[in-house]
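__Record contents__

***
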Amino acid sequence: MAALAYYIPVDEMTEAERERLIMEHLPQVRLIARKIHERVPSSVAFDDLLSAGVIGLIQAIDNFDAAQGVKLRTYAEFRIRGAILDSLREGDWAPRMKRKLARELEAAVTRAEQALGRAPEESDIAAQLGIPVEEYRDKLNQVAALDIGELQYARNEQDSPTLLQYAVSNQESPEVTLERTELEKLIASAIDRIPGPERTVLSLYFFEELTLREIAEVMGIHLSRVSQIKSQAILRLRTAIARRWPGVAA
C-alpha cells in the first residue's frame, strides 16, 4: 500500500514507489504555491512558484526520516515552503528602490520610538520623515509586498501555529533549532508591544492565512488600509529584531 512507502528509506524504494509519492503530494505543492502566490506581486509567475515547490517536495521525499517522529506531509510542507521562498529571494523580485525605501521607513520608526519611549503612531513616524500622514501611508503601500520570506511561520502536526521565522531554513541542526527558539521569543515579545490593530492583522495574515481582502472584510475596513497596517506592523517587527538580533536585518 502507498502509505507503507512513507516508512521506506528512499534508497530502498523502487522508482515506481518514489514516483507515486511525488504524484500523491503534488496537490499539497499546488495548495502551498497558490497561497504564497496570492501574497506576492503579479509579476511573479505561479508556474515558477509551483516548479520550486516540486523541487522542495522531491527533496523532502529523498531526505525524509520517519524515525524523527514526524509525518511526511508535515516535513514536506516545510521543505516545499522553504524551496518556494528561497526561489523568491534568489530571484531578487523586490525592486532595489523599494528595499531602500523600506530601510528608510524602518529608520524613521526607530528614531520615533527612541524619541518617544513608546510605540510611535503613524503621525509620529510621518513627522520623523517630514511628510504628511497620507504620504507616509502611500509609502507603506509601496513596500507592502517586501515581507514575503522575511517573516514566515511553521506549524506542528496538529496544524497550529508554533513558530514565527524570519527566514526559512532547510537545516535542522541543534544550533539552528536553538536560534529559532530564541527568535520565536524575540518576535513574540515584539508583537506584544505593537498596537492592537496591527497585532490583529498579523494574526489573521500569518496564523489564520487570510488574504488581505478577507482581513478587510473581517475588520470592516478598506483593503488598502489593511495593507498599510500590515506593512507598518512588519516595519515595527523588523526594527525590533534588528536591534536585538542584527544578523537577521534585511
